[in-house]
From TrEMBL:
Region (Disordered): 27-53
Database matches in PROSITE patterns: PROKAR_LIPOPROTEIN, TAT
Phylogenetic lineage: Bacteria, Bacillati, Actinomycetota, Actinomycetes, Micrococcales
Feature: compositional bias, Pro residues: 41-50
Organism of origin: Microbacterium ginsengiterrae
Protein name: Monoamine oxidase
């Protein structure tokens, strides 16, 4: 088995210095990572100025995520997620956001799923067993952290040359905060409520609590979730499941109405799917009127969670052979290695793609669950300006009306002092955005910002 420099350091429990040394050592780059680009020359076709720098995600085409988040399709029961999480022959375990029935598609769900898998492994594993975890995202890190004191030997195989998976904090000295190309937003806390237990340890959580709903004729009142709640409430009594869009129509709402359409666009930035494919019986969490955001470095947190494990980066697993006596893994390099038990945390999109061969094939209930769940799309673009071209201090912007591709923006200026705008797009629009080349993606983002042009603030 090839040992990377990082594995040696992390395996030896090296701290920040080790991580620093490693970060100076280029790892092989097996994947098209989200890219950083200095902005091209000012774009004459939009009145919105070109940013000083921009960076965008490319999850749709990333071979190690194949989309952004799982969602529940029409007619699919949430127990599909529980079936996927079911251990096989007490040897093969599954975790990852798609396996968490309570908070799928979220940071919290990923952590919860890793914790649950670790509980299951601990209940069976004897002292000294060799446990492998496939994937060093939040779920894989949570498995490892929860096995840290279990007297077992944990090895983590990660396909990319970095940890974090669908969290990805890019550090750049020119930016006031790490650029978050994956998940980083959390629902706002209700008054007096405590943060969720899974949020413990998430770095630098900031409040993004003021929203702006901008229509062509002026700003409108915040669009509330009431029509969605009414539609979902009514759908429960129907004999069969229908789409959220259909449920809205049945209860007298028009999903094409500009205000409701802006709310639905916001929903796609967390669900990854449009209302016409989302289940009304088992809908995603509804949009949060206010948000919190993680402005710290996820990669550092995950490195910490993985301390004490053998971490092997740039090592995609291509085959998993299992029976009641153990599990054997084959890596992309052709090497094979055996373990007592294995926890698979790769994204649903990777499981659906068939890029990992299971021998024997997974039980029918697992294959059924993998095929039943949907893969949604979310993309993001971060723009940094030397001077703001907007005057509002609202932190969450929504575009009401028009046919802009990106209709949800986060304004980080009030909370960081730097003129940073973060565009979010989900569902079909995210797929469309992902297909654009750098120049066209930036153009689409700038055009989408036209409604927010205003006099520069101080
Ligand atoms: C753009 C975007 C925005 C999001 N926004 C939010 C948000 O605001 N709030 C929120 O709560 N959630 C959000 N999410 C969702 C959240 O990021 C995910 O639910 C969570 O990070 C998933 O963690 P995971 O460990 O389940 O999967 P992952 O993080 O994907 O980890 C799986 C790991 O497996 C690795 N892997 C894949 N194939 C192989 C292989 N063959 N061999 C070895 N390793 C492999 C991958 O490289 C990856 O590191 C967002 C996601 C995206 C993409």
């Amino acid at each position: 088995m090839r040992m990377t420099r990082r594995e040696l350091l992390v395996g030896a429990g090296a701290g920040a210095l080790g991580v620093l040394l490693v970060s100076c050592t280029p790892e092989p780059r097996p994947t098209a990572s989200p890219t950083a680009t200095a902005s091209p020359a000012p774009l004459p076709t939009t009145p919105v100025p070109a940013p000083a720098a921009s960076m965008r995600s490319e999850w749709a085409t990333d071979p190690f995520s194949r989309g952004a988040v799982s969602f529940t399709r029409i007619g699919v029961q949430p127990d599909a997620r529980e079936r996927l999480a079911e251990p096989i022959q007490e040897r093969l375990f599954f975790a990852g956001e798609a396996t968490d029935a309570d908070a799928p598609g979220t940071l919290r769900g990923a952590i919860r799923s890793g914790e649950s898998a670790a509980v299951r492994v601990r209940a069976l594993a004897a002292e000294g067993e060799r446990i492998a975890v496939i994937g060093a995202g939040l779920a894989g890190a949570a498995v490892a952290a929860n096995l840290a004191d279990a007297a077992v030997e944990v090895t983590v195989f990660e396909a990319r040359d970095r940890v974090g998976g669908r969290t990805h904090s890019q550090r750049d000295d020119d930016w006031a905060v790490p650029i978050q190309l994956g998940g980083w937003l959390l629902p706002a806390l209700a008054e007096g409520a405590q943060p969720q237990r899974e949020e413990d340890g998430l770095p630098d959580v900031i409040d993004l609590s003021s929203a702006l709903w901008r229509a062509p004729d002026g700003d409108i009142d915040a669009v509330v979730n009431a029509p969605l709640e009414k539609a979902i409430g009514a759908a429960v009594d129907l004999p069969t499941d229908i789409s959220l869009a259909e449920a809205l129509e049945k209860t007298g709402s028009d999903p094409e109405d500009p205000a409701l359409s802006a709310l639905l666009a916001y929903l796609t930035t967390t669900s990854g799917a449009d209302a016409d494919v989302l289940s009304a019986w088992f809908p995603p969490a509804l949009p949060s009127a206010a948000l919190r955001g993680v402005t710290g470095d996820f990669d550092e947190v995950i490195q910490e969670m993985l301390e004490g494990t053998q971490l092997t980066l740039a090592s995609p697993v291509t085959r998993i052979a299992y029976d009641e006596s153990g599990v054997s893994l084959r890596l992309g390099t052709g090497e094979a290695t055996s373990f007592d038990r294995v926890v698979v945390t790769v994204p649903l999109g990777v499981l659906q793609s068939g890029r990992i061969e299971f021998a024997p094939a997974l039980p029918f209930s697992h294959r059924g669950a993998i095929n039943a769940l949907g893969i949604g799309h979310i993309e993001t673009i971060w723009l940094r300006y030397d001077e703001p071209f907007w005057e509002t201090d609202a932190t969450i912007w929504h575009t009401v009306g028009g046919d802009h591709l990106l209709r949800t923006w986060i304004n980080l200026r009030p909370v960081t002092g730097e003129s940073i705008l973060v565009g979010l797009v989900g569902g079909d629009a995210a797929e469309e955005f992902a297909e654009l080349d750098e120049q066209d993606a930036l153009l689409a983002a700038l055009t989408s910002l036209t409604p927010f042009l205003g006099a520069a603030s101080e």
